[in-house]
TrEMBL record:
The keyword Transferase applies. This is NTP transferase domain-containing protein. It comes from Hymenobacter sediminicola. One of its GO terms (molecular function) is transferase activity. Gene3D superfamilies: Hexapeptide repeat proteins, Spore Coat Polysaccharide Biosynthesis Protein SpsA, Chain A. Pfam families: NTP_transferase. Residues 8-235 form the Nucleotidyl transferase domain. Keywords: Transferase.
Length: 336
């Protein structure tokens, strides 16, 4: 099994957090989004992962080194491939054509999921979907009475289905997928100016390839700051349900209260503070005299005498306020 992760986008909706690192390396409960994604796919696949192929922009040697380590964490070889022009999803996947062999999972790295199924590798193709209230912003699939996919419909304005495609696909035959993607490029078949994976899926279906849906129980978006903070909240709850230890032994918590679920990384110092629920503190972060709820604080950040909620605070960032020295008379109201 190989996992292909297209992630060359600039992550503009996540700025300023993506000015120094690509979006998939932003942490959720202490691990990068893409690491959570790869680990969760590996569990669902139910078989060893040989290779994880990352398709990226020119993000630099440190990013590439981090990605290779993520692949190695699931026992796989990590490979780096470049997409230098934003020419669409089909073009992106084909940038890793050497990895398109045997069974492959293609997973776009701006989403996480919760699933309680094991992938059926005997089926030619599986498109992972989630039922949504409003399907208009998404690509959706239609099913026949046998539960097989009959149509791929992009952003339907009239109701045809509420099963949204979440961006994760299984293909039993990677070489077949590669040939269909190459066909689009060789014949300059574009949709809205780009080479799209959905066009290849449509061609494969028309040739008789059977696709079935893989239904996840929860789909978590990491497309913008608010969505990512919510994803962190939900993921902390999953980890708590699994009984995972979320507070590092090296953390120093003094005269403070942690309201679970809270992730506390290595070397974190918390003094005279209330932290939680739904807070992730990256390694070496320092929190003093503060209240933090529902937030992501990345590595080596400092939070001093602050009240923080629904927030993302970047690596090495500082949030500092000053305790108020007050003389407030009876029945007065002061809002700060």
């Amino acid at each position: 099994m190989r996992i292909i992760v297209p992630m060359a986008g600039m992550g503009k909706r996540m700025r300023p957090h993506t000015l120094t690192v690509p979006k998939p390396l932003i942490p959720i409960a202490g691990k990068p989004i893409v690491q959570r994604l790869v680990e969760d796919i590996a569990k669902v696949c139910g078989e060893p992962v040989q290779e994880v192929a990352f398709i990226i922009g020119r993000f630099g040697a440190e990013v590439e080194k981090s990605l290779v380590k993520i692949a190695e964490s699931v026992g796989a070889k990590g490979t780096i491939h470049y997409q230098d022009e934003p020419l669409g999803t089909a073009h992106a996947i084909l940038c890793a054509q050497s990895a398109l062999t045997g069974p492959v999972v293609v997973a776009f790295a701006d989403t996480l999921f919760k699933a309680d199924f094991t992938l059926d590798s005997s089926v030619p193709g599986t498109i992972w979907v989630q039922k949504v209230d409003d399907p208009k912003p998404f690509g959706v699939v239609k099913l026949n009475e046998q539960g097989q996919i009959t149509d791929f419909v992009e952003k339907p304005q009239e109701f045809v289905s509420d099963l949204a495609i979440i961006g994760i696909y299984y293909f039993q035959d990677g070489e077949y997928l590669r040939s269909e993607l190459q066909y689009l490029l060789d014949n300059d078949i574009k949709d809205k100016g780009e080479y799209q994976l959905t066009n290849a899926l449509e061609n494969m279906k028309n040739k008789g390839t059977t696709f079935v849906p893989g239904r996840v129980t929860e789909w978590l978006d990491c497309g913008n700051k608010d969505a990512t903070v919510f994803t962190n909240q939900r993921y902390l709850e999953y980890l708590q349900e699994r009984g995972e230890n979320l507070v590092a032994d090296s953390a120093k918590v003094t005269n403070s209260v942690l309201i679970p679920p809270v992730y506390v990384g290595e070397g974190v110092i918390i003094t005279d503070s209330v932290v939680g629920p739904h807070v992730s503190l990256g390694n070496q972060t320092n929190v003093r005299g503060s209240v933090i709820t529902n937030s992501i604080v990345q590595q080596s950040a400092t939070v001093l005498h602050a009240n923080v909620t629904n927030s993302m605070i970047g690596n090495f960032a500082t949030v500092a306020s000053t305790p108020d020295d007050l003389s407030l008379g009876d029945y007065n109201t002061l809002r700060v």
